Amino acid sequence: MTKPCVLVIDDEAVMCETLKAILETEDYDVLTTGDARDGLNVVNKEPVNLIISDVRLPGMSGIKFLSAIKENFPSIPVMMISAFGDMKSAVDAMKRGAFDYLAKPFQPEELLVTVKKALDYENLMVENLMLRNEIGSRYNLSDIIGESDVMRQLKDTVARVAPTDATVFIEGECGVGKELVAHSLHYHSDRIGQPFIEVNCAAFAESLLESELFGHEKGAFTGADQRTSGKLEIADGGTLYLDEIGDMSLSVQAKVLRGIQEKVFFRVGGIEAVHTDVRIIAATNKNLKEEIVRGNFREDLYFRLNVINIKIPPLRERDGDIPLLAKTFLNQAKRKFPKHNDIELSPAIITRLDQYQWPGNVREVQNLMERVVILGNLDEIDYLVQGAASPIDHASLSHLPLKDAVEAFKRSQIIEALKQSKWRLNKAAVRLGISRHALRYQMETLGIDTND
User: Fold this and answer.
1) Span 146-313 CATH architecture
2) What pLDDT, on a 0 to 100 scale, did the predictor assign at position 404?
3) For residue 341, is pLDDT > 80?
4) Is the pTM of this model over 0.70?
5) pLDDT higher than threshold 80 for residue 136
6) Which neighbouring-strand residues pair with 32?
7) What CATH superfamily classification does 5-134 receive?
């Protein structure tokens, strides 16, 4: 393991040697110099993890040196040292970003404890930067797969809107990639180093959603044994992504509206106003204009959210994108499940995929490619396309009560999966996306036996 490197800058040679001797007792690599400009050259050439600099130096002062480091090497912590009682310099150094300040004379133990804290901080900063780069690359605009005109337009809109703080409203069917667009907006904004917090509004009952968003005070309701911060508070400085906002109740909508307008809210059971600075990105697969007419959604909240509107087209409207998506997801699946990495998509298969309507959109393509690789069988594609064509005549179900129609449809799908799997329950269960136990239960419930 590489030893941490500490650069010491002090115009007193004795002080440099003293600090070097103390630091080497903890097995640190120590570089020394008496000049700030020389120190900048060292940092440019050597992998320095921590800098300890005197405030008063000949030529470039320690304070100016600190400013230069913070501008060019912000992840390197800088500790400042100076004569006892020079509080003005201490305050100035801390304002300019010094990690800590030690007044001479100091004890070796005091120095070593502060150095360890500074190096721990530097490790954290490096890890954070690596994580940000990894996440940023994951949500790069190039990861929004598609070269059709509508997708080029969408990526151009995301690129132009992301750097702003504008509220964004994303519309699109299930599976089109609303969450990916929301992440891309955040990770290409100035808020990239701050939290991205997601709340699925459809996943919570009304009372629970209010607490999830705004937090609650101790004793606000049964079981609230301590104050809890809500997602609006946790997302402070970052982005709050409200998925499925069309499922939010009217009473919670009113409170969200106030939070967006005034950037202030109250925890459940609280009287203290909590201020927050968040960018709001909302998404839905519902037509909110129709929901407004029905009285299910507030018109004022809709207009507050709909500053920038991004409509993600369904896959059936993305001319030419299906082959690109299928090949991309197939390659991803082969890397993820390398057992069957020799599977390829022939031109004939690509044509069949391109002709399918993809009601599940991009997510359905991704799931299909994973299933093909896991099972090592391209027949999955034929099953999907043929199943879409006519496993059951839907018109024949229209005269049935809903319960009977659902049962007839389920029975048809299960029998078709069993036939395609040659009545092997494990394989049929995988095709249907359920467990073998669940398949057996459905077969018993619907009266399906091996003679069907």
Assistant:
1) 3-Layer(aba) Sandwich (3.40)
2) 66
3) no
4) no
5) no
6) 8
7) Response regulator (3.40.50.2300)
